[in-house]
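re: the backbone from monday

yeah here it is again, tokenized this time
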């Protein structure tokens, strides 16, 4: 009775072994499939990397062409309109000539008055013809010389005008001489028809330091 038990055990053991073999085959198949899948993915990555590495370099762009030369535009030409000017004919006005009236004859010139000859000439009053005082500044500067003067004597016998005709080389002496003569020197004026009239004369003053006051 024990033999059949052994065969049963053997059959059970045989089934377990077969199941194990089948499982091992499945595991091997799954591992092989996973390995194949992993290898395929790896090869794909390698191809991507190789494609990235082997990509051709970008061709450099050509520089843009230079701008065209600037052409200065032609300046505009002003068009001047032409105008035709017609000459205007002006009719000259008629001129009527009127004979001029004869100019009146000029009136006869009045005869020049006849002056009576002078009956009394100009005479100096010698008591008034003294030498003027020497200017102090001219004395200190040793100025001297002769002053010639032209005088106008009024009808009253005094000097109304005095002008220097020849200088003593000192303006101070000349001015002092004219001032003194006008203030002190007197004349008896000439007469005409019994009336005193003005006259002109020349005098001189000699400035000498040896005779100075």
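seq for it, each position gets an aa:
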């Amino acid at each position: 009775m024990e033999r059949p038990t052994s065969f049963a055990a053997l059959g059970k053991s045989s089934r377990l072994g077969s199941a194990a073999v089948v499982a091992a085959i499945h595991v091997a198949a799954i591992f092989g499939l996973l390995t194949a899948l992993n290898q395929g993915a790896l090869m794909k990555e390698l191809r991507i990397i190789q494609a990235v590495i082997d990509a051709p370099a970008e061709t450099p762009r050509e520089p843009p062409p230079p701008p065209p030369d600037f052409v200065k535009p032609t300046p505009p030409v002003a068009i001047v309109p032409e105008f035709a000017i017609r000459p205007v004919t002006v009719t000259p006005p008629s001129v009527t000539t009127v004979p001029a009236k004869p100019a009146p004859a000029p009136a006869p010139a009045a005869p020049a008055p006849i002056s009576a000859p002078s009956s009394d000439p100009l005479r100096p009053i010698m008591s008034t013809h003294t030498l003027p005082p020497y200017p102090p500044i001219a004395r200190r500067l040793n100025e001297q010389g002769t002053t010639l003067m032209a005088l106008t004597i009024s009808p009253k016998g005094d000097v109304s005008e005095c002008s220097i005709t020849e200088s003593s080389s000192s303006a101070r002496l000349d001015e002092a001489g004219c001032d003194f003569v006008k203030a002190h020197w007197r004349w008896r004026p000439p007469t005409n028809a019994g009336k005193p009239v003005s006259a002109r004369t020349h005098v001189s003053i000699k400035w000498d330091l040896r005779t100075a006051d």
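Confidence is low (pLDDT under 50) at residues 1-7, 92-100, 111-116. The chain has three helices and eight strands.
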